[in-house]
Amino acid sequence: MAGAGDDAGMDAVQKRLMFEDECILVDEQDKIVGHESKYNCHLWEKIESENLLHRAFSVFLFNSKYELLLQQRSATKVTFPLVWTNTCCSHPLYRESELIEENYLGVRNAAQRKLLDELGIVAEDVPVDQFTSLGRILYKAPSDGKWGEHEGLQPNPDEVADVKYVNREQLKELLRKADAGEDGLKLSPWFRLVVDNFLMGWWDHVEKGTLNEVVDMETIHKLK
To answer: Are strands 160-166 and 88-90 parallel, antiparallel or unpaired?
Structure first.
């Protein structure tokens, strides 16, 4: 584990979250095997040496015009600062309300909590029974060599730098810019994996009102 001096530049809010939040450790079948600090779960040397795998979630929120809400992660985020990504990405924590396995209620509770924390979206606007759990993926991605992943808007500046709703064509333009390295635009690795493998098909079903037809919570897709 890196010494405390290596983290001297870490934002105070992010430092508190990294050391106080306990993520849920799982195996490759998504079975709970323990818990560990968010700090250790994202420290690349521990991911590599101990094969630490933690549970995470990604929310894709559409408006009534079928536009997808994206966020740009805050510059103070420890992992993947200033990259554009889907509406909300975080972790269920090792606490009773977020450990509930039935109907993935624990993850839904966590998603509701983080939508409020990051974007100011109140629980009444995103009731947990209105979330559709679509699928599960397994991935591993480094952030900067030290950190990695192996997982009514009032954006919180500690979490979010910017937000925007995009239609399909606008998203394709973002992808083009990211691929070309234009304007320094970067996308989170998990968002890109979902875009490349699932998103456009899901989007079709969102517009048709048939999203439940593509739910697959049995398969764990191993993506790179």
So the answer is: unpaired
Rounded to two decimals, the pTM is 0.86
Residue 101: alpha-carbon gap to chain centroid: 19
Q: What one-character-per-residue DSSP string does 4-53 give?
A: GGGGTTS-HHHHHHHHH-EEEEE-TT--EEEEEEHHHHHBHHHHHHH---
Question: Residue 2's closest CA among 33, 46, 50?
Answer: 46
Q: Which is nearest to 137 in space by CA: 96, 94, 192?
A: 192
What is the model's pLDDT at position 44? 80
Q: Is 96 a catalytic residue?
A: no
Q: What is the pLDDT of residue 155?
A: 92
Q: Which residue in 41, 89, 98, 118 is the catalytic one?
A: 89
Reply yes or no on whether 88 is catalytic. Answer: no
Among the listed residues 98, 118, 151, 159, the single catalytic one is 151
Q: Are strands 135-138 and 216-222 parallel, antiparallel or unpaired?
A: parallel
